[in-house]
């Protein structure tokens, strides 16, 4: 397929020159070879009920023939259908017209690494009755998958790798430039464009809200963490200090918007290291500050573009949604959440959506072969609520929880079960810079239920670390897993409750039986041998839930096994950031803090000391 247009060209970028370009025959031959087979590489997600019933989705009228452009979403092509020619996936005005509703098109894009994010994004929209959407595929693997799953897709011609693009990497910047080029390709078609990143989800149909501001050339989300309004109106642009975030923004095809898009394109193409969001902010703020009549909008960019800032309380960032819960405190209904302000890359974003039960996983995710292990965390009131919220009290609270999680990971590894992580409580927020504990002016409550990536290296926990050095992989699930409606009833109902007891007590004497309350009694500090012996009879039970993990396990029998386990879980925890007014302000969490007498939560004094405790 043809690549994007050059920086000098102002013609539409999708021109579809196939065959005539050197090497085009080879690409097309490969494409058609692949198209001879149905897409079987990954199972489909469960279809939403509305998609099965067709209740949400606009079907072609009797006067319209059904085509790949207007086919109802989630309706796959006919069985054994061949892949259409590459030309059929070229982005055109006709394609957009077939999918647009009331002059609006909703668009996201990505590569195959984000397939599950894209399917989740589409699923949320179709559940809301929004089907005027298109997905741009940056590689042919994603193109095929979406086509055969019944998702309207076009080819961006990027020929991009199918792996994840880490933040700040050359591939990350390439994806940013592709977004700018895509906006420039779409605006000339004359439709309003709601452009979204794939790492966000829609919780409420945004189109009626956007229609409330018909004079806006551009409505953008932001990284604002301090509320400037307390209702669902646009942010007070005079008080917005956070960067405009281009993960969610709505463009109208006006002349000022088109000029901004072109200047933005020229700017990012001129410097391949320039972050597209920084370039956007620089351009928009060139002339900024003259209010539009009515005061909701502000003239910006060239002094003619009318800009509005979507309220961060309901078009949420990762901070206003997952940390502050701003929409709850203001009694508002959120429209969207964008997984920003997190610390574990793509894996951390996926986990945050799972914690909020907003991610759609494959059925196999909810039925691990070895079953699940969960426990009820024990946290004294004094650790949560007493005293000032300081670095010391924060670490005292988190460390108390780490010790229980460490035990749970050990038990899960022995039983070869997937650990359901407990809710994690924090007293202090985490940032990339020094701060007084929580950001002043925000609505963060203390203590608060903090995302797992505030403390744990989620991306490390998911890695396939070498068994020779780190022992058996320990799978895990989010704390809300057992409450997720997608969890099958047969899994939820297959439950064994385990209660710890004192080994020499009369109640604990019949340890091979379940008591009259249906609870299995397990002696505290059970050895590895005893733990395996007592629970081996229940290997077919899907969920084993401990009443507590305090003193639940007496230790590994094999020193070599324990060493590997320590190597693994030591790397599971990250750092807290940051103490104010320090050159080095972060403090590393330590999974084995309790084995180091006098351990204190202090930042490293020197660069030589600045390393995780295990290194």
Automatic annotation (TrEMBL):
Sample GO molecular function, one term: arabinosyltransferase activity
Keyword field: Membrane, Transferase, Transmembrane, Transmembrane helix
Ranges for domain Nucleotide-diphospho-sugar transferase: 130-353
GO biological process: cell wall pectin biosynthetic process; root hair cell development
Any Pfam family hit: Nucleotid_trans
Membrane-spanning segments: 12-34
InterPro entries: Glycosyltransferase_77 (IPR053250), Nucl-diP-sugar_transferase (IPR005069)
Annotated protein name in UniProt: Arabinosyltransferase XEG113
Species lineage: Eukaryota, Viridiplantae, Streptophyta, Embryophyta, Tracheophyta
